[in-house]
Amino acid sequence: MKFFALIAGLTLLLGGGTATAQERAGTIEFSDGRLVAGNISLTPGGTLKIEAGPAMRVLPLDAVREIRLTPETETMERAWRFKEAGQTAKEYFGDPYPVRHLAVTVTLGDGETVHGHLYTTVLYVTLDDTVQKVILPAKQRGQAGETLKMLVYPARISFGAGAAGSPAVAGLKLSGLAANSEVVAITRGALVRLAAKAAGGPGDFELPSPPGDGCFLAAKSGATIQVGWPKSADEKTATLVRRAMPNSEDFFDDRRILGAYLDTTNAEIYSLVLAVRQGKTTLDEARSQPWRLELYRWKLDDDGRVMLAGQNYFFRGIGGKGEAPPAVVLSEKLWYLQRDGGVWKTRDE
């Protein structure tokens, strides 16, 4: 057994920077925004096993364009025991711990998508002489005292051109944007950041991957950023976020809540936050104050409390001391997108 494990390890380590038939160039994006790129492979002889309804799909890696993991259920639980033997009454003890179940959507080379639950799978990412092990989990369970945000997972695995062809794309047709606007989408659920590329005529863009069940959209032109958001203010939801924000302190010392949206279907809240560093930094004096326009996802529990489950950013930059960050404008036009096949359009298209 040890001999075969050694051979498998040598096979990975000797792969170098050139992808083999079982190794494909790609990128893994984690739920905290971290990226890992290199040659991606399964354990030698391994496959992707997906429980898709009553059927079991077994897929080789070279048939896949993209793998995306999305939270299906997220809860905070506590250890418990029966108060007395033979009784149903329970008593809870210890700090809560997070539990997350993940669903998977796999896009194949011919455009077919397979949705279901992935059997826990191990990927290996080879870059130069290093090999990194990445687990694609079906379920995550944290330690007592941890939060949902601390349970980092691979949200998207995308592959370059290969046996499966070029990556799947989704079209955007957005009217009224200034020329040379930068457009970014963040998917619902896993908060995968997708930077769009200009394609064709004015207002035409392509996303490197379909946004799945929907996305939040932002467009930057000069010192102004438009964000798709419902115009009617939800002050009750914004108040919940303000109360919870101090529990998610980070590097930025000025975090302005620009909008809060309650997704009642999935019992979660999305908040738009402009985060600015006002205090001292270690950056160069002339440009020393970072800013980020961020999207936070909060989980709403049965008691009405909110817990930060994830975050990502639309745009970021570094300004000078006393320099204002870009102005952010909420846009109903970019919020109410219509889907027409593989293209997302503003209403007047």
Task: Describe the protein in words.
- The protein has 349 residues and is mostly beta strands.
- It is 7% helix and 52% strand.
- The protein is built from 3 helices and 25 strands.
- The strands form 4 sheets. Strands 1, 2, 3, 4, 5, 6, 7, 8, 9, 10 and 11 form an 11-stranded antiparallel sheet that branches. Strands 15-16-12-25-24 form a 5-stranded mixed sheet. The protein has a 5-stranded mixed sheet with strand order 14-13-17-18-23.
- The termini are far apart.
Structural class: mainly beta
Count of alpha and pi helical runs: 3
Could you name the ranges where pLDDT drops below 50 across 5 or more consecutive residues?
1-21
Mean pLDDT: 86
Strand content: over 45%
* Estimated radius of gyration: 22 Å
End-to-end C-alpha gap? 62 Å
How many structural units, i.e. domains? 2
* Main sheet record: 11 strands, antiparallel
What coarse outline follows from CA principal-axis ratios? globular
Helix fraction, binned, reads under 10%
Element order, helices and strands? Answer: HEEEEEEEEEEEEEEEEEEHEEEEEHEE
- Count of extended strands: 25
Provide a short characterization of the protein structure.
This protein is mainly beta and 349 residues long.
Helix/strand layout:
Blueprint: H1 2-13, E1 23-30, E2 35-42, E3 48-52, E4 55-59, E5 64-82, E6 90-108, E7 113-118, E8 121-127, E9 130-136, E10 139-141, E11 154-159, E12 170-173, E13 182-187, E14 193-195, E15 197-198, E16 204-207, E17 215-221, E18 224-228, H2 235-244, E19 254-263, E20 268-276, E21 289-300, E22 306-319, E23 327-331, H3 332-335, E24 337-340, E25 343-346
Parallel strand pairs: 12-25, 18-23
Antiparallel strand pairs: 1-2, 1-11, 2-8, 3-4, 3-7, 5-6, 5-11, 6-7, 6-10, 8-9, 12-16, 13-14, 13-17, 15-16, 17-18, 19-20, 20-21, 21-22, 24-25
